[in-house]
Amino acid sequence: MALIVHKYGGTSMGSTERIKNVAKRVAKWHDAGHQIVVVPSAMSGETNRIIGLAKEIMAQPDPRELDMIASTGEQVSVGLLAMALQAIGKQAVSYAGWQVAIKTDSSYTKARIASIDDVKVKADLDAGKIVIITGFQGVDEQGNITTLGRGGSDTSAVAVAAALKAQECLIYTDVDGVYTTDPRVVSDARRLNTVTFEEMLEMASLGSKVLQIRSVEFAGNYRMPTRVLSSLTDPLMPLEEEAKSGTLISFEEDTHMEQATITGIAFNRDEAKITVLGVPDRPGIAYQILGPVADANIEVDMIIQNQSVEGKTDFTFTVPRGEYQKAMEVLEGSVKAHIGAASIAGDSKVSKVSVVGVGMRSHVGIASQMFRTLSEEGINIQMISTSEIKISVLIDEKYMELAVRALHKAFGLENA
Ligand code: ADP
Ligand code: ASP
Ligand code: MG
Question: Which is nearest to 386 in space by CA: 331, 325, 308, 304?
């Protein structure tokens, strides 16, 4: 007997029919003698619908009130799933984040989990119940409801698994594992049996939304075995087969070293580029530009400072597209005049494409192969950034899918 956490995403919970299938699958695991905690997302489209309502009222809703409503989709899901389990004769109980409690900080819409109380959940499990906990939501010290950022149910699930010292966290979704790239963009993308924790962390941070990045961080920090698998298979398929399906995030450094230089390709459409032109090239200038951007709680990603010409330089960086307007306002507001910049230019139609793989550590020439492939397609690279196991380029968003397909082919990912 083991304690196992299941997470079901929006599509997996997308209709009452699907919820009944989730109940059948969960009941199968419980019947096999396991203790099961389930962390579901809101039904697909629901969180978007709720946020859309808020935006009909005001363009920039108060984040506290936004969390108050955005968290409700998950509350519907847990109740429906508890009913679906009870309807097939299982004892099940649902909890909202604050009832457990899943304590977070107070950064509304992107809160971080601080602690999870396991007392109530353990008691229910010991009493033979299946416990269902809302994904995505928590509660701060003052009792305010918070949410963990879009896609945050993954993080809730892995954090709950870590707090309960579960044997494994199973992330059920609408694809049957982690692929070499998003199978919706490259039809011959290949499913990976395992992916190293570091690679998954890079892929998630570079835009592969199959797992929210913070869930991967939790998996790494607590060494929580985490598997991504399909919720769309027959819920009554043999458990032994299901338990081995999908993609396991592995903590073994060398699983891929001998096999492939590149493991996957990630992309992010959600990028915007800002250039501050004609900046006096003197110490402290980067801080004077980026300090106010950071103070506005805007995350900066890639950064380039050009060679200075006659004491003036250009300074370019990227921000999430949703924060582009805000960043431009901050810079146009006080920064531009203060630092004596000539002008500020922006482009919100850019995308980032990255190749990822621990094999890069022991292979040279990956960057040149990447740049050659893009040049053969006539794609201009606007910015580049690298780490030990990834190379990212910023390109015009028009060419993003072309770039991903060309790189997937160039690195032989479909048949590696
Ligand atoms: P859920 O609602 O279950 O959380 P998400 O939509 O958040 O599901 O994540 C699953 C989706 O992630 C897939 O449908 C797929 O389009 C996308 N995706 C992006 N990159 C990858 C990848 N490398 N492997 C698998 N899926 C990916
Ligand atoms: N329902 C939330 C969202 O749509 C959380 C999640 O699905 O993981 O972002
Ligand atoms: Mg998701």
Answer: 304
Could you say which ligand is closest to the alpha carbon of residue 189? Answer: 1
What DSSP assignment string belongs to 5-25?
Answer: EEEE-TTTTSSHHHHHHHHHH
What is the location of CATH 3.40.1160.10 in the chain? 3-175+210-253
CB within 6 Å of ligand 2 — which residues?
A: 9-10, 41-42, 47, 73, 135-136, 150-154
Q: Alpha-carbon distance 221 to 274, whole Å?
A: 34
Q: Which atom of ligand 2 is nearest to the CA of 9?
A: 7
Q: How far is the CA of 174 from the centre of ligand 1 (A)?
A: 7
**Ligand that comes closest to the CA of residue 209:** 1
With the most atoms of ligand 2 within 8 angstroms of its CB, the residue from 6, 8, 41, 145 to mutate is 41
In the chain, list all ranges with CATH 3.30.2130.10: 264-410
The architecture (CATH level 2) of 264-410 comes to 2-Layer Sandwich (3.30)
DSSP 335-359: IHHHHT-SEEEEEEEEEEEEEE-GG
One pLDDT digit (tens) per residue for the chain, 416 residues: 899 999 999 999 999 999 999 999 999 999 999 999 999 999 999 999 999 999 999 988 999 999 999 999 999 999 999 999 999 999 999 999 999 999 999 999 999 999 999 999 999 999 999 999 999 999 999 999 999 999 999 999 999 999 999 999 999 999 999 999 999 999 999 999 999 999 999 999 999 999 999 999 999 999 999 999 999 999 999 999 999 999 999 987 655 545 568 999 999 999 999 999 999 888 888 899 999 999 998 999 999 988 888 889 999 999 999 999 999 999 998 788 888 888 999 999 999 999 999 888 888 889 999 999 999 999 999 999 999 999 999 999 999 999 999 999 999 998 65
The ligand placed nearest to the CA atom of residue 157 is 2
pTM: 0.92
SS (H, E, C) 199-226: HHHHHHHCCCCCCCHHHHHHHHHCCCCE
CA nearest ligand 1 atom 27, residue? 182
Ligand 2: which residue has its CA nearest to atom 4? 47
Q: Which residues line ligand 1 (CB under 6 A)?
A: 9-12, 41, 151, 173-175, 178-179, 181-184, 208-210, 264
The rounded Å distance from CA 269 to ligand 1 centre is 14
CATH code reported for the domain at 3-175+210-253: 3.40.1160.10
